[in-house]
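Quick one, tokens below:
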């Protein structure tokens, strides 16, 4: 049964609005086409148009071996001018910067930034706690849309996209691949409904899979963690540190407004882990404990993000996903650099 101040219990139901009775229960499998319960593949594909507004340009050094769409700080002949420096023996005379040479009175050569593609990993939580929503859609659907937007933005920049999609009984891992080869299998899995399963909620599954992923990711990657992070604790510092070592990490939290703001005083019928119960919020103290627990979780996650130089993004199920994500990522390079320096 539900015991405050844990996160809200799992509603095995269609997302409802504030005016919908809390007792309404709908089987998601019998309402598969209902908006907000399950991500639809055609919708994830059409999000490509919105992805053009997302800024996924690297905020630091990119190390890769294939040509692609990002500018690297590697020195050599490339696609875009970087800076000039004093000529050194062995420099290619074809790169002489004659204007600076004439102005400075000493030989200077031009340096260029080369384009390099970058591996992008999408780690997307579709577990039981994500199949909950009171506004617009389940958290799992919002997470799928976030993954699709990031994936399409990476594809359009020439990056290789891969990822790991998981719920309580299944997982799909794809190594980063160019064009659509890496992204489309991930989108197909995100749009595939969960079949009947007797597996219970493994609250440590995110940590387990993220730790495994840390052993496969190559330095210079962009890693997007998309979850509600309901079970993340201080013990998760180790795997996050390994993921962030030499990589750029997006820490994207998806939550429902009800998780941050308790409903009005009352007793609410709920369904959690297949069991029915009563969510007792008949006292102001109970509501206060509930909201304090969520605030504490936010503080902990933000602290982890700062510690490891990750970019923190928070979305609710009521937010317009594309515009909110575009705005959040707009200044990430500057803020991310400040966060990284503040931890040194």
């Amino acid at each position: 049964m539900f015991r405050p101040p844990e996160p809200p219990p799992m509603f095995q139901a269609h997302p409802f609005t504030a005016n919908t009775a809390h007792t309404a229960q709908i089987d998601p499998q019998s309402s598969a086409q209902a908006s907000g319960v399950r991500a639809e593949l055609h919708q994830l594909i059409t999000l490509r148009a919105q992805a053009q507004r997302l800024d996924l340009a690297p905020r630091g050094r990119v190390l890769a071996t294939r040509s692609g769409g990002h500018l690297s700080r590697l020195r050599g002949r490339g696609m875009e001018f970087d800076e000039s420096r004093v000529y050194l023996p062995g420099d290619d005379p074809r790169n002489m910067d004659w204007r600076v040479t004439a102005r400075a009175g000493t030989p200077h050569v031009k340096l260029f930034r080369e384009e390099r593609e970058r591996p992008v990993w999408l780690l997307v939580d579709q577990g039981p706690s994500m199949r909950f929503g009171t506004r617009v859609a389940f958290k799992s659907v919002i997470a799928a849309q976030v993954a699709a937007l990031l994936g399409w933005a990476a594809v359009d920049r020439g990056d290789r996209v891969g990822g790991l999609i998981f719920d309580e009984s299944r997982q799909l891992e794809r190594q980063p691949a160019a064009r659509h080869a890496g992204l489309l299998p991930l989108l197909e899995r995100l749009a595939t409904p969960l079949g009947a399963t007797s597996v219970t909620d493994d609250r440590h599954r995110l940590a387990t899979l993220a730790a495994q992923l840390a052993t496969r990711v190559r330095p210079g990657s962009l890693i997007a963690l998309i979850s509600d992070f309901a079970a993340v604790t201080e013990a998760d510092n180790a795997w996050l540190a390994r993921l962030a070592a030499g990589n750029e990490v997006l820490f994207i939290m998806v939550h429902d407004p009800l998780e941050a703001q308790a409903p009005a005083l009352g007793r609410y019928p709920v369904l959690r882990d297949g069991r029915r119960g009563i969510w007792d919020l008949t006292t102001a103290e109970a509501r206060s404990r509930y909201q304090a627990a969520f605030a504490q979780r936010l503080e902990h996650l933000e602290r982890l993000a700062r510690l490891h130089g990750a970019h923190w993004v928070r979305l609710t199920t009521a937010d317009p996903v594309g515009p909110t994500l575009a705005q959040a990522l707009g200044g990430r390079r500057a803020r991310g650099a400040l966060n990284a320096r503040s931890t040194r």
